[in-house]
């Protein structure tokens, strides 16, 4: 299983509702969530190992939303 964590511009419940069918109907996405309370509006996706991350990002962007990898924050 693969876990993707992405930064998005999906900031409202209305926007989550718009993107919901894409993730719910994707054959190899098992679970997903968007934390609209987080400053980065974090999208977490649990999927099959065969999920193509770049294709997923492209689909999100084609539906009018921005997403990118969330950089790791290392403690100093």
Structure characterization notes:
The protein has helices spanning about 15-25, 55-60; strands at about 1-10, 30-35, 40-45, 65-70. With about 80 residues, the chain is an alpha+beta fold. The protein has a 4-stranded antiparallel β-sheet, covered by helices on one side. The longest helix has 12 residues, at about 15-25. The protein starts with a strand and ends in a 7-residue tail after the last strand.
Task: Give the helices and strands, then pairings.
Blueprint lengths: L1 E7 L4 H12 L4 E7 L6 E6 L5 H10 L4 E3 L7
Protein name: Copper chaperone CopZ
Rg result: 12 Å
> How are strands sequenced across the largest beta sheet?
2-3-1-4
Instruction: Write the element-wise H/E pattern from the N-terminal end onward.
Output: EHEEHE
User: What CATH first level would be assigned?
Assistant: Alpha Beta
Report the structural category: alpha+beta
Using DSSP, what is the number of strands? Answer: 4
Determine the strand fraction and express it as a percent band: 25-35%
CATH architecture: 2-Layer Sandwich
Please state the overall shape, judged from the principal axes of the Cα atoms.
globular
Total domains: 1
CATH topology name, in short, is Alpha-Beta Plaits
Number of helices: 2
Q: Largest sheet at a glance?
A: 4 strands, antiparallel
User: How far apart lie the N and C ends?
Assistant: 30 Å
Poorly predicted residue ranges:
none
Question: Percentage of helical residues?
Answer: 25-40%
- Indicate the mean pLDDT: 92
Protein name: Copper chaperone CopZ
Organism: Polaribacter pacificus
């Amino acid at each position: 299983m693969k876990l993707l964590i992405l930064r998005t511009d999906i900031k409202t419940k209305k926007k989550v509702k718009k993107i919901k069918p894409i993730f719910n109907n994707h054959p190899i996405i098992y679970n997903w969530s968007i934390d609209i309370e987080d400053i980065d509006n974090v999208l977490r996706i649990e999927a099959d190992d065969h999920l193509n991350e770049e294709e997923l990002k492209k689909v999100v962007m084609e539906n009018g939303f921005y997403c990118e990898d969330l950089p790791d924050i290392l403690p100093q």
